[in-house]
Amino acid sequence: MGTQGTAGKIKNPLKGIRVVDKTRPIGEMAYVSIKGAIVKGDLHPGQRLVESALSARMGISRIPVREAIKKLEQDGLIEKLGKGGFIVKNPSRKEIEETFGIRACLESYAAALATGHMDAPTIDRLENVLRRYRDALERRDIAKMTQLNNQLDEIIFSTSGSRKLYALIANFRDFIFRYRKVLLTCMEYAAISLSEHEEIVRAMKEGDGERVEKLVRKHLLRGRDILIRDMELGKEM
């Protein structure tokens, strides 16, 4: 999977990093700020994180930045360099395969459970999101498509009725958000994604949980395969 290389090659190396709101615990806000920038793709895989630059950008001391970096390393979002310092982690093929494999199991099951709890108002909400997604696709608005994909997931998973399953899926949310944006930059995939979601919602409307489960699994594994293909072609992630 390609990277942006060193920070010197990036037009705005600390895009997404904002001054910290000091009315809340500074360490927590530093963590939220850096993590958000990584998840949204503002900080790129392979990009080095420099404590002094981050602390200056956020208007805080190095200590809370250091604490945030330690926690982000535990989260698996950044990794330590052998010579010292940290970079935004670039997941391996194995990690992508493992994460999407787990997602396929959890999310397809959640969607099947949700099908059994579907009612007319919920179907209307799903169909409304799909209409807005279609409009965003026509405008090539990737940010909006990403947001609407997240809304679809939220409606479906919250309708599953399983708090434990919802919590397990949420553990992978940050990893997925990062690569969902990458996937949707490909308009061909974005169009296929819309078509697959429409098919999933139709199956939910018909109450066919078994079909929903198969469709969701197929949809997720297609995304996995595209990411792996792009990684092997050396495309920037």
What features would you describe in this structure?
- With 237 residues, the chain is mainly alpha-helical.
- The protein folds into two domains: 7-88, Orthogonal Bundle (Arc Repressor Mutant, subunit A), CATH 1.10.10; 93-232, Up-down Bundle (Four Helix Bundle (Hemerythrin (Met), subunit A)).
- 67% of the residues lie in helices and 3% in strands.
- The chain has ten helices and three strands; from the N terminus they run H-E-H-H-E-E-H-H-H-H-H-H-H.
- The protein is elongated, with a radius of gyration of 19 Å.
- The protein starts with 25 loop residues before the first helix and ends in a 5-residue tail after the last helix.
Summarize the topology:
Elements: H1 26-39, E1 48-49, H2 51-58, H3 62-75, E2 78-80, E3 86-88, H4 93-115, H5 120-138, H6 142-159, H7 163-170, H8 173-184, H9 187-205, H10 209-232
Antiparallel strand pairs: 1-3, 2-3
Helix pairs in contact: 1-3, 2-3, 4-6, 4-7, 4-10, 5-6, 5-9, 6-8, 9-10
Could you list some keywords that capture this structure?
three-stranded antiparallel beta sheet; Four Helix Bundle (Hemerythrin (Met), subunit A); 2 domains; mainly alpha; Arc Repressor Mutant, subunit A; disordered N terminus
Secondary structure tally, helices: 10
CATH superfamily placement of the largest domain: GntR ligand-binding domain-like
Strand fraction: under 5%
Q: Judging from the principal axes of the Cα atoms, what is the shape? A: elongated
**Major pleated sheet:** 3 strands, antiparallel
Quote the CATH topology of the largest domain: Four Helix Bundle (Hemerythrin (Met), subunit A)
| Total count of domains | 2
